[in-house]
Fold these 3 entries.
Entry 1:
Amino acid sequence: MTFFDLLRIIEYRKGKSEPEEMPKTQEKEFERYLKKYEALIIKVARVYSHGAENQKDLIQEIVLQLWRAFPKYSADRGVSTWTYRIALNVSISYLRKESSRRRREEEYSQNQSRQTDNCDPIDDRLKILYRFIHTLNATDKALMLLFLEGCKNKEIAKIMGVTPGVVSTKIYRIKAQLKVYFESIESN
């Protein structure tokens, strides 16, 4: 069974009566695309999910939505911008659908060290950064993720559908919050 057979099965189980077919050449192109943007998808999923299983579920949902949208992709849009937009929209929707998310957030903060140790090996400051990012609302998480990826304010604004001025202001405020967060941890 191929990767694309699995995508078709997933799509079929989600209620589509006839799974969409993609030409073989486009499937190969999509495979190359996924390999190139795999790290981006994983980073978005890591920011918007708690625990390895939720992260896998979110990655699966992002890939499925990218696969559905891939035949309609227009080259006049930047590939990374298009990928971020879909990944972030799927991730935000994923959060909205999770009714028990708030309860998990509380449990997550209490068991943070145990859960972060289950992730890939990351240095302590990066763990602290991820903990901080998890405290942000969905929009600010997206903004922070794009900023940390090195996106320019103009590109972030385009992806998120806001003005560059709003992006600059939000980044400034988040940086100030982050500074206070790091200082409070270092003083303990």
Note: The longest helix spans residues 24-48.
Entry 2:
Amino acid sequence: MKRIFLFVMALLIIASLAGCGNGSDFQGIIHRVKESSITVVTDDVEPDTSYPVYEVFVDDQTEIKGAVNKLSKLRADQKVEIWVKGEWNKDPENKMVANKIIVSKK
């Protein structure tokens, strides 16, 4: 009985760790769409608080999926998940290039 319990516990731990690390680098709302980039803000906002605006560049290798599949079809106020090449940098001055953008269908 003890072996079965330990086996089940090990499976639960492995299953819970299997999903780790697959999340997006940023989840938020498109603030503005430019010719080769989008500016995004967090979607978890509180009144009377200021939040940074991040500019994320889109290149010919960026995969755009979900409700739209082209940069030209992105619009302000759409909810997005973004994966960047390299690591997400919380400094709005650093250039980040999107690897993948998923647009929520709301």
Note: Residues 24-103 form a domain with the OB fold (Dihydrolipoamide Acetyltransferase, E2P) fold (CATH 2.40.50).
Entry 3:
Amino acid sequence: MALLWHTGSRHRRPVRPISLPAELREPIPRQRASTGPHRPAARLPPVTDPEPYPGASIGLPESGPRSLASILARVAALIGDWAASMVVAIAIFGWEVMTGSGWRSFMILAVYFVQASLLTALTGGSFGQLIARIGLVRLDGQPLGWWRPFAKTALKCLVIPTLVIGAERRTLPDLLLGTVVVNRR
């Protein structure tokens, strides 16, 4: 039996290795996992290529007009919408919308709801979306109509549904209403 040297401390001292029984010294043979005597091993479906780009599964082009809008453009549009709503609310109701309490504290949200709903129904995008050059369209290519922009903005004002991003960068309101936010340029 050979001696090994322990080097974990300042002083080197000999250490004897632990002797194992013979059955533990032999390597363990690899066995194939079995599903049981009555069931054959399951076959996995063939691996398919993932979608080549976001928006491919819903028929949108990779780039250019009607391609899927980026998250950055959507966030920039929301910031632009909120900033414009703040300016309008301050102009109409005064500075108390920023610091006050009661009904005036909700006026920025009310102005946002009105401008986003009306502009989306009329032009296909809110103020911030028009600046960011993105817009809202239906997946089936039909016009948005009046109720979809109002429903989408109302759900967006609740905040929680917009935090749930699903497949193809679509929020819960987009999934419910059959819409998607696309590039205009």
Note: The two ends are 78 Å apart (CA to CA).
